[in-house]
């Protein structure tokens, strides 16, 4: 599976190419020829905080590896309310799997929650390259498995747990979010209002300190 824990540290002394290869190795790619080809193909982008990477309604032509920073996926309701779907940190692949598989526009927006440094690749390398390279196919398979497991776990938590259990699940499985994601975004992710999350954090904190 793709890494699901905390971010992979990348030294500021690495070049963009070296940083990318470090992250790709962590994702399971060890073929030196493939690493070299992907590094040559990559286009590196600095993205400012709150800048949109993929907008809902667009048909994405690229996917990305996060070399530095944090991004969020979110839905926008007709009334303008945002609902956070997921957060991805350093070392993660980001893009729209459903758009890739169905050749349809993305149904959610991907935006930078922190200043980001991304390596961009054309979607076509998955469309054509997987048949030619087993490691690339394995990477895509792990990406699909990771998304399926993450969505299944979060769906179960949202549908079957009360607000306190949801927050405790977050602390157990994705604690790094608490230090990097603003509270109002966390509340949306957990399916509650910011004020409710604030009260819950105080109550849980008091229980932990006893």
Automatic annotation (TrEMBL):
SMART domains: cNMP (SM00100). Pfam families: cNMP_binding. PROSITE patterns: CNMP_BINDING_3. InterPro entries: cNMP-bd_dom (IPR000595), cNMP-bd_dom_sf (IPR018490), RmlC-like_jellyroll (IPR014710). This is Crp/Fnr family transcriptional regulator.
